[in-house]
Amino acid sequence: MKRMSTTILLILVLVIVIAVVVANLPEQTTGGPPTGGDPAAVEIARPAGATLSHIAYVHDGDTLYLQPDGTTSRADEITVRLIGIDTPELRPEVQCYAVKARDYLRQQLPEGTEVWVESDRERLDRYGRTLLYLWKQDGTSVNLDLVEKGYASALTIPPNDSYHGEFEAAERAARAADRGQWGSC
């Protein structure tokens, strides 16, 4: 009987130790799908190869103009289409939430703001716009932030799909919480 009690006690101690170790494991930060429906769990870290640029002008929720670092001429500005997302259109007719998406992006990225940029597999879209992912100085992914807050939907156009999973997960969470356009349009 004493031997059985010792075995049970050892098993209980082992279970407690395993539970404590598992509870203290670091969370993965690979940018996978959110856990528990929390969109904040989705992250896209700024890549080491991203380059510095500056906001010249925000046209709408997913199109803007950049002034590359080290340039000052308006002729050097680059027209950018944010990769992996789509916001409501301002033209030919103003769609629901288009003005809010543009105004939010303008608030987040006022003219002169430093941003870090990186392209995916294709550099230009069919309209000649440079396709980019953007990060703010604090490390926030601009593209992902727009989806998380409901200003944009996920839009995958292969082969530019590096963060497809993260954008899709963020859209599901925004829709479920009726954030932005999902609760208004």
Automatic annotation (TrEMBL):
- Assigned keywords, A-Z: Endonuclease, Hydrolase, Nuclease
Check the UniProt entry and state the signal peptide residues, or none: none
Q: Which PROSITE patterns has this protein been placed in? A: TNASE_3
Q: Which SMART domains match?
A: SNc
The UniProt entry, under InterPro entries, shows:
SNase_OB-fold_sf, Staphylococal_nuclease_OB-fold
**This protein's record includes keyword Lipid metabolism:** no
Keyword Protein transport attached: no
Query: Which Pfam families does the protein's record reference?
Result: SNase
The UniProt GO MF terms for this protein read:
endonuclease activity; hydrolase activity
Domain of life of the organism encoding this protein: Bacteria
Q: What is this protein called?
A: Thermonuclease
Q: What is the species listed in this Swiss-Prot or TrEMBL entry? A: Terrimesophilobacter mesophilus
